Amino acid sequence: MNSILQHDLNDFENILEKAKQQGINFLNNLENIPTSNKNKIDPKRDLNELGLGSEQALKEFKERLAPLLVSSPGPRYWGFVTGGSTPASIVGDWLASVYDQNTQSVTSQGGNSALIEFETINLLLQLLELPDSFLGGFVTGAAMSNFTCLGVARQWFGKQFGKDFAKNGISESINILTATPHSSSIKSLSMLGIGSQNYTVVNTIAGNREALDLDDLEEKIKALNGKPFILISSAGTVNTADFDDFEAILNLKAKYNFWWHIDAAFGGFAAVSEKYKHYVKGWENADSVTIDCHKWLNVPYESAFYLIKKEHLNLQIETFQNSNAPYLGNALENFNYLNVLPENSRRLRALPVWFSLIAYGKEGFCDIIEKSTLLALHFGNALIENGDFELMAPIRLNNVCFTLKGEENQDKTLQFLTKLNDTGKVFMTPTVYQNRKGIRASFVNWRTTEEDIKIVIEEMKAVLDDLDY
Ligand SMILES: *Cc1c(COP(=O)(O)O)cnc(C)c1O
C-alpha cells in the first residue's frame, strides 16, 4: 500500500472527525453563509506527484473550494425548487457512502441491500397513501425518473402496434399529449428518440391556470382517430404548482387507450396533508409517477424515485434489461434493479430516505409540507402589503410567482432580482409566466421560518429604494 494511503488508513477516525467538524461548522452557520457569491478559482490546478493525504486535502478544500459553495441547503434559498437536508437524511447519506454497496437485487451482490430499497419504497407508498400495485426504485432525480417512466411508455406504445421499439428502434410516430410539461420531460423525449418537438400541446384551463383543459384534451384525443397515445400530466407545475384533474383523466382512461404518466416531482407530497391531498385525488390510477426526494422530502442530492405499475414490469425489463450479459441471469425470473432502470451500478440511494422516514414519521413530513405552504401564503401577503409587487398566480401550494407591478416594468423586475440575489441574503429564480417576466420563490426547506420572510422583505425594500423604483 502507498505510504500516504497507509497513513490515512491508520488515521481514519481522526480524518472523519475533522470532516464531521467541517460539516457541522457549515450546517451550524447556514443562516449566515451567503446564498450567492462571486468567488472563483482557477480550475487548472496541477495534479500532485505525491499525494497530500486526506487531512491536507481537507485543509485545501476549506481554503480554496468551500468559498465557492453557497447556502443552498439554508432557509432563504428559494430558487428553483430546492430542498435542504434534515439531520437523519445526512446520517443516511453518510452511511450510504461508508457502506458503499452496489444495490441491485436480493443476494445477487452477496448482500441484501435491495431489501432496504424495497422497504423504503414501501414506506414512501405509505407516506403518500399509494397502493402497492406500484413497483418503485431510486434514480438520481426527477429528470431521470421521467426518462425511466417515459422509456417504458415508449415500449408500451410500440406494443400497441405489435412492435418492440427497444429491440428494433422506433418505427411508428409516437403520440404525446401534454399541457405544461417540465423541461426534463421534453429532454426525455429527445433522449428517447421521440423528438423534443414531437408532442401536442393541450390548452390549459382558461383564467390563470396551468392544468390540462379537459375539453381540449378530449378533442385532441379524438383527432388521433383511436390511435394510442402517451399523456404527460402534472402534479405541481413549477411556476404555479398547478395540478391536473386526475379523476377526470381516470374517466378518459375508461374510454381511450393511453399511457398515463404523472410528473409529481414536488407536488406529490400534497398527498401527505389532509389539507392538500385533494389535489392528487385519483393519481393512484396512473401507469407511472415521478417523485423527487431531494426537494420536499429534504434529503441531500441525488434522490428521486419512479413508480410504475407492476403489470408493466415486462415492458420495463424489455426497455432496460442488460440482454447481452448472460451472467446477470434471466431478467424476468430474477428481479434486478439494473434491468429495470437506466443505471447499472448504483449506491444505496434509499438509505437517506429510509432514515428520514423512520426518524420523522408521517407527522414530521406533514409538518414540513404544511409549514412550507403557510410560509408561501405569508410571503404572498407580505408582497401584497408592500404594494410594489403583484402576484402572477394564486398561491396553491408552496410556490409564489410574482413580479413588479406594471406591464412596463418587466426589465426592472429582472434588474431587481439580480440585485436582490447579489445581497446573498436570499436567492430566487427568474421565470416567464403567461409571456411576462417574473420571479419565483419556492418554499421547500424545513429550516425556513417567518423570521426569514421578515429578513427577505426588508432586503427587498432596500433593493427597491436603491433602484429608485
Ligand atoms: C425539479 C423538477 C423536475 C426535475 O427534477 P430533477 O430532480 O432536477 O432532475 C422535473 N419535474 C418537476 C415538476 C420538477 O419540479
From TrEMBL:
Alphabetized PANTHER family for the sequence: GROUP II PYRIDOXAL-5-PHOSPHATE DECARBOXYLASE, MIP05841P
Record-stated family: Belongs to the group II decarboxylase family.
Protein name according to UniProt: Aspartate aminotransferase family protein
Cofactor: pyridoxal 5'-phosphate
Entry-annotated residues carrying N6-(pyridoxal phosphate)lysine: 295
Record-level Gene Ontology MF annotations: carboxy-lyase activity; pyridoxal phosphate binding; transaminase activity
Organism: Flavobacterium johnsoniae (Cytophaga johnsonae)
BP GO annotations: amino acid metabolic process; carboxylic acid metabolic process
Matches recorded under InterPro entries: Aromatic_deC, PyrdxlP-dep_de-COase, PyrdxlP-dep_Trfase, PyrdxlP-dep_Trfase_major, PyrdxlP-dep_Trfase_small
Keywords per UniProt: Aminotransferase, Decarboxylase, Lyase, Pyridoxal phosphate, Transferase
